[in-house]
Design goal:
Oligomer: single chain
Low-confidence stretches: none
CATH class of the largest domain: Alpha Beta
Strand order of the largest sheet: 11-12-10-9-8-13-6-14-17-16
Bound molecules: ligand AOF, zinc ion
Order of helices and strands: HEEHEHEHEHHEEHEHEEEEHEHEEEE
Mean pLDDT: 96
CATH superfamily of the largest domain: Dihydrofolate Reductase, subunit A
Helix content: 25-40%
Shape: elongated
C-alpha cells in the first residue's frame, strides 16, 4: 500500500479536483503491475495497473492494492470496480473509502457482491494524508486552505514599513520546497496588502511544474493595477468590490461575505488545493473565518529584534521538516494565539 501511495504522489500536480491514487497488482508475492492516476480526465490508477500487466491470465490469482475505493460510477471514465470484476481479480485491498457520494461504499459493495474478497483501512492514515484536499472538498463542500509563512526565530515575518534591511527569511532549499507546494496547488491566495507591497509573481520558477491561478483578496478595491502579476500572462482572480473581466484577470464582487464568495468562486473552477501565502492580516482573518485547514510555518535561524509579527500557532505541530538551516512545522486545523 505504501508503494501505491508513492505512485499516487506522482499525480500531485495534475489530478485536481480528483484525488491522488496509485495501484499495485501482486501475484504470488511479486509485483506484476503498477499504475497511478496521472491527470484529471485520464484513466484511473486501477486501469493503468491492470493495463501494465504483461500476462493478463495471472490477474485471476492476483491481489489488487489501491489507496482509494475503486469507483462504481460513470464519471469522466468508466467504473474501475467493473473492470476488476471483468478481469476476475479475486482480492482487493483498499486504504480509504471514497467520500464522493456517487461512489461512497458502492464500489466496495459491487466488488463484494461479485465475490471479490475486499479488505479496507490498510495504511488508512498515510493515504488520507495525501488526499486531504479531496476528502475535504467532498465532505465539507469547500476548498482546502493550506497557509504557509516563514518567520525568524524570534517570531517576525516582515520588516516594519520603510525599513531598508533585507526581508529575506527562508533558505534556498526551503524556497524550492515552497515552489513545489505551489506547483501541487490549484491556486495561491494572498491579501491585497501583500500584493501591493511585494509585487510578487507567485510562480513555480524554481521547480518544474505548472503555475497555479493567483487569487487576491481585495474587498476594498485597493490593488494596484501596475503589478507584475497582471503582465505575465498568468491567470488571476481578484475577490474585490466589482464584477468584471480584464485580460487574464477576473474581478469578483465580494458582496457581504468575502469567504463564502471566495469558496464559491474557487469551487466553481475546480480549484480545491489553495496555498495561502499571507500576509499576517490575511492569515489571521482566514483563521477567524474558520478557513485555515492546515498551516506550514518555516522557521529560519535568524533574529531581527523587531518587525511585523508572524502568527503564533497554539499547541504542538503534527509534523516537522528540515530544509538545510531552516525547520518547518505542519499544523492541522491550527488555532492561532
Ligand atoms: C478510482 N481510481 O484513480 C481515481 C478515482 O471523472 P472521473 O471518472 O475521473 O471520476 C472522478 C472520481 O472518481 C473522483 O471524484 C473520485 O471519487 C474517483 N477517483 N477513483 O477508483 C482513481 N482517481
Ligand atoms: Zn475508478
Amino acid at each position: 500500500m505504501l508503494r501505491c501511495i508513492d505512485l499516487a504522489k506522482r499525480g500531485a500536480m495534475y489530478t485536481s479536483p480528483n484525488p491522488q491514487v496509485g495501484s499495485v497488482i501482486v501475484y504470488r508475492g511479486k509485483i506484476i503491475g503498477e499504475g497511478f492516476h496521472s491527470k484529471v480526465g485520464g484513466p484511473h490508477a486501477e486501469v493503468e495497473a491492470i493495463r501494465s500487466v504483461a500476462d493478463p491470465d495471472l490477474l485471476k490469482e492476483s491481489t489488487l492494492y489501491v489507496n482509494l475505493e475503486p469507483c462504481s460510477h460513470h464519471g469522466r471514465t468508466p467504473p474501475c470496480a467493473d473492470l476488476i470484476v471483468e478481469n476476475k481479480i479475486p482480492r482487493v485491498v483498499v486504504a480509504n473509502e471514497d467520500p464522493n457520494p456517487s461512489v461512497s461504499g458502492k464500489g466496495l459493495e459491487h466488488l463484494r457482491a461479485s465475490s471479490v474478497d475486499v479488505m479496507t483501512g490498510v495504511c488508512a492514515q498515510e493515504a488520507e494524508a495525501i488526499n486531504r484536499p479531496f476528502f475535504h472538498q467532498q465532505l465539507v463542500g469547500r476548498p482546502y486552505y493550506k497557509a504557509k509563512w516563514a518567520r525568524t526565530s524570534d517570531g517576525f515575518m516582515g520588516r516594519q514599513e520603510g525599513s531598508e534591511k533585507s526581508s529575506h527569511i527562508s533558505s534556498d532549499l526551503a524556497n524550492r520546497w515552497v515552489h513545489q507546494l505551489r506547483a501541487e496547488s490549484d491556486a495561491i491566495l494572498v491579501g491585497s496588502g501583500t500584493a501591493n507591497a511585494d509585487d510578487p509573481l507567485l510562480t513555480t520558477r524554481l521547480v518544474d511544474g505548472p503555475d497555479p491561478v493567483r487569487v487576491v483578496l481585495d474587498p476594498n478595491g485597493e490593488l494596484r493595477s501596475d503589478l507584475r502579476m497582471f503582465k505575465d500572462g498568468g491567470a488571476n482572480i481578484v475577490v474585490s468590490n466589482v464584477d468584471k473581466e480584464e485580460g487574464n484577470t477576473l474581478f469578483v464582487d465580494a458582496n457581504e461575505n468575502i469567504y463564502d464568495v471566495l469558496d464559491r468562486v474557487l469551487m466553481e473552477r475546480d480549484l480545491v488545493k489553495i496555498l495561502v501565502e499571507g500576509g499576517a492580516h490575511t492569515l489571521r482573518e482566514l483563521e477567524r473565518a474558520g478557513r485555515m485547514d492546515e498551516a506550514l510555518e518555516i522557521i529560519a535561524p535568524m533574529t531581527w529584534g523587531n518587525g511585523l509579527k508572524a502568527p503564533k500557532v497554539a499547541g504542538k505541530p503534527t509534523r516537522n521538516y528540515e530544509f538545510g538551516p531552516d525547520r518547518a512545522n505542519q499544523y492541522l486545523k491550527p488555532v492561532l494565539e
